[in-house]
């Protein structure tokens, strides 16, 4: 299976390498909060000897309500992400939503991310592939909630047609499948099925526990979640062979401005990541 190394950072994802941790906050709320969350998670990952990438979105375009908080936007968001990188020396991952955003986002983020609902949009995929070819970064593709794991081969092929197969910088991310009825289901057999396509695979355990349109706090005006399921999904997926984990934290999850019901308390990070490291070591036979 292919492995990917991140230029300028001692991070390689894939078979035979440590569990990669992409973790941070759902959406940027303030510069200070981003700094505190990154500092805490970097410290935890250094202690556990796990490669760390800071995650945060500058915009959450797919919202249940037009009144939902979306974030600071592209310009301010990239400024905050740049500040975090400079302060802590960590790579960052963030998503983009239009082809025009790909290049400026890739100038700041070592890993740019295609949201699940958009992973079949050719213009978006091509723009992302071109952007990471120029930057030397990675393209983290969330598998759509409606897509079978093996059908991700078409996404990988599409990216490879831009980058060349030898350079193909794709990482696939499992985040659950939707059958309607306000729920997502993760098929753990999908992890090895996607790895069989020859690329590293991560698990987005945070969004996998979402309950779309089922937040009782807003009578369905926002997305609910089952926070208690994050650890279960993460542990199961890593046991099934996932190469990396994608997690969202907050100092006070119930007050998070976006997807609070799905994110974890920052104070729980070290306990969870310690377990995930141990499971990954067993699954890898090391």
From TrEMBL:
State the pathway, as annotated in the record: Bacterial outer membrane biogenesis; lipopolysaccharide biosynthesis; Carbohydrate biosynthesis; 3-deoxy-D-manno-octulosonate biosynthesis; 3-deoxy-D-manno-octulosonate from D-ribulose 5-phosphate: step 2/3
Which ranges form a coiled coil? none
Output one GO BP term.
lipopolysaccharide biosynthetic process
What keywords would UniProt list here?
Cytoplasm, Transferase
Catalyses which reaction?
Answer: D-arabinose 5-phosphate + phosphoenolpyruvate + H2O = 3-deoxy-alpha-D-manno-2-octulosonate-8-phosphate + phosphate
Q: What EC number(s) is this enzyme filed under?
A: 2.5.1.55
Task: Please provide, in alphabetical order, the Gene Ontology terms of the cellular component aspect for this entry.
Answer: cytoplasm
- Main location per the UniProt record: cytoplasm
Q: Where is the DAHP synthetase I/KDSA domain?
A: 9-279
MF terms from GO for this chain are: 3-deoxy-8-phosphooctulonate synthase activity
Record's InterPro entries?
Aldolase_TIM, DAHP1/KDSA, KDO8P_synthase
Q: In which compartments does the protein localize?
A: Cytoplasm
Query: What is the similarity comment for this entry?
Result: Belongs to the KdsA family.
**Name of the protein:** 3-deoxy-8-phosphooctulonate synthase
Species, as recorded: Henriciella algicola
């Amino acid at each position: 299976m292919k492995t990917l190394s991140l230029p300028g950072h001692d991070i390689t994802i894939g078979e035979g390498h440590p569990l990669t941790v992409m973790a941070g906050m759902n959406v940027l709320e303030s510069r200070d909060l981003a700094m505190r969350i990154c500092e805490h998670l970097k410290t935890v990952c250094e202690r556990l000897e796990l490669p760390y990438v800071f995650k945060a979105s500058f915009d959450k375009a797919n919202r249940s309500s037009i009144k939902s908080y979306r974030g600071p936007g592209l310009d301010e968001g990239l400024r905050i992400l740049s500040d975090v990188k400079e302060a802590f020396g960590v790579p960052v991952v963030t998503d983009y939503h239009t082809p025009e955003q790909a290049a400026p986002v890739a100038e700041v983020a070592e890993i740019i991310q295609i949201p699940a609902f958009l992973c079949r949009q050719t213009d978006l995929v091509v723009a992302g592939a071109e952007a990471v070819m120029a930057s030397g970064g990675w393209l983290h593709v969330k598998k759509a909630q409606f897509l079978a794991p093996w059908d991700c081969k078409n996404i990988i092929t599409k990216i490879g047609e831009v980058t060349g197969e030898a350079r193909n910088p794709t990482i696939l991310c499992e985040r659950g499948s939707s059958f309607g009825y306000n729920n997502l289901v993760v098929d753990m057999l999908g992890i090895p099925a996607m790895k069989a396509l020859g690329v590293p695979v991560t698990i987005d355990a945070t969004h996998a526990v979402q309950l779309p349109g089922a937040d009782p706090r807003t009578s369905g005006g926002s997305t609910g979640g089952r926070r208690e399921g994050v650890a279960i999904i993460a542990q199961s997926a890593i046991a099934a062979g996932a190469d990396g984990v994608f997690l969202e934290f907050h100092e006070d999850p119930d007050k998070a401005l976006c997807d609070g019901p799905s994110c974890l308390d920052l104070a729980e990070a070290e306990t969870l990541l310690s377990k995930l490291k141990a499971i990954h070591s067993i699954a890898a036979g090391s």
